[in-house]
From TrEMBL:
<keyword id="KW-0413">Isomerase</keyword>
<dbReference type="InterPro" id="IPR012341">
    <property type="entry name" value="6hp_glycosidase-like_sf"/>
</dbReference>
<dbReference type="Pfam" id="PF07221">
    <property type="entry name" value="GlcNAc_2-epim"/>
</dbReference>
<protein>
    <submittedName>
        <fullName>Mannose-6-phosphate isomerase</fullName>
    </submittedName>
</protein>
<dbReference type="GO" id="GO:0005975">
    <property type="term" value="P:carbohydrate metabolic process"/>
</dbReference>
<dbReference type="InterPro" id="IPR008928">
    <property type="entry name" value="6-hairpin_glycosidase_sf"/>
</dbReference>
<dbReference type="GO" id="GO:0016853">
    <property type="term" value="F:isomerase activity"/>
</dbReference>
<comment type="similarity">
    <text>Belongs to the N-acylglucosamine 2-epimerase family.</text>
</comment>
<dbReference type="InterPro" id="IPR010819">
    <property type="entry name" value="AGE/CE"/>
</dbReference>
Length: 381
């Protein structure tokens, strides 16, 4: 029952810790990271995607009745701050990439697909948790801004308002995640079209062959080339797509089981080194090219095991999920301040991270909250 144990650690230790240390009351905004001793970040620089994901976590957890009592008000206050500081109006609108929470000055004015996808996810759950029309309105404005500012003639959306290369699958994956949340909670025909458009990119561009692998980096016309880093693969993202594809199938009444199995088998084959349950961050032609294992790919692998267990009923997947959860607890959540974690290990499982990034809070929460994981309900009591 290690999956359930991981959930308890999150709900009893991690979420309360980040509700306190992860929020700057003076600024009314979330922090980018905690120090290794659990102290809040003192510097003011924060990324839009990081604060948006924390808004999402607290809004979703509040909706499920799992969050500390002040979480929803905190999420709303943080979004009001984010919107006031980072939202750009007009024909080239959208949310900027980063700002200083102390000075409320934008530090990177680029409108990025990744950041706007994360804001859209946060808005979806703010609307679901509160029912307030202000969030419904901003959802529509954000979708409109993405379509106007980041339109691309070769399909999908541009990387950012500067047209930066290489193009990446990852921001598109998170845009799919946001539109999935919209469809699952507040479905409209427009949201369904956006979700379908985002999911279609998996077959049309990201899976170059029917059975993969999932490619990450592309040229302007989705071409693969060494100069764009197209040989680099990320096993964690393959796992993440398994989780998202199962949700898409539930929504669209489709069946992408074969794609999920191919993606997952590839992720495990290229991402695990002998003697370890954990995935490396990045590989090239099946060989690790980064001697590191961040926490988030392990959580995405856990979610993929649980999603496939729900889809296929094979008990081995649940056993594997429990094994991965136990390994995460032992390697990443031992010898750290309460409610914290080692964010990165080397190939010998020695911690190497210099901070505790808030970005991993989101990955952990999605494993706790995912309905296919089951068991969240009885943890409420």
């Amino acid at each position: 029952m290690s999956v359930q144990q991981l959930k308890r650690v999150f709900l009893e230790d991690i979420l309360p810790t980040w509700s306190k240390s992860g929020f700057d009351e003076t600024c009314g905004q979330f922090v980018e990271y905690l120090e290794l001793d659990g102290a809040p970040q003192e510097a003011g620089e924060v990324r839009t995607r990081t604060v948006a994901r924390q808004i999402y976590v607290h809004a979703h957890a509040s909706h499920l009745g799992l969050a500390p009592s002040a979480s929803l008000a905190m999420a709303e206050r943080a979004f009001a701050n984010l919107h006031r500081v980072a939202w750009v109006r007009g024909k080239r609108g959208g949310y900027t990439r980063s700002f200083n929470r102390h000075t409320e000055l934008v530090t990177d004015p680029v409108r990025d697909l990744y950041d706007n996808a994360c804001v859209l996810l946060a808005l979806s759950w703010l609307l679901t948790a509160t029912g307030k029309d202000v969030y419904r309105h901003q959802i529509e404005q954000t979708i409109l801004a993405v379509d106007r500012t980041l339109t691309d003639p070769f399909g999908g959306w541009a990387e950012d308002s500067n047209g930066t290369l290489p193009r990446r699958q990852n921001p598109h994956m998170h845009y799919l995640e946001a539109t999935l949340a919209l469809c699952e909670n507040n479905r409209t025909p427009k949201h369904m079209r956006s979700e379908g458009k985002a999911f279609a990119l998996l077959r049309s561009h990201f899976l170059v062959a029917p059975n993969g692998p999932l490619h990450e980096f592309f040229g302007p016309k989705w071409e693969l080339a060494e100069r764009y880093g197209s040989d680099r693969l990320e096993p964690g993202h393959m796992c993440e797509w398994v989780w998202l594809a199962t949700r898409h199938d539930s929504l669209a009444r489709s069946d992408n089981t074969k794609i999920c199995l191919d993606l997952f088998s590839t992720a495990l084959a290229v991402g695990r080194t002998p003697g370890s349950l954990f995935l490396v961050d990045t590989v090239s032609v099946g060989k690790p090219i980064s001697p590191s294992r961040r926490l988030w790919p392990q959580v995405e692998m856990l979610k993929a095991f649980m999603a496939l267990h729900e889809r296929l009923g094979f008990p081995g997947y649940r056993t594997e999920a429990d094994d991965v959860a136990a390994a995460i607890l032992a390697a990443y959540m031992t010898g750290v301040p309460r409610g914290c974690w080692h964010d990165c290990l080397d190939l010998n499982e020695v911690p190497t991270a210099r901070t505790i990034p808030a970005s991993s809070l989101y990955h952990l929460w999605t494993a706790v909250a995912d309905p296919v994981a089951s068991g969240v309900g009885h943890l409420c009591g």
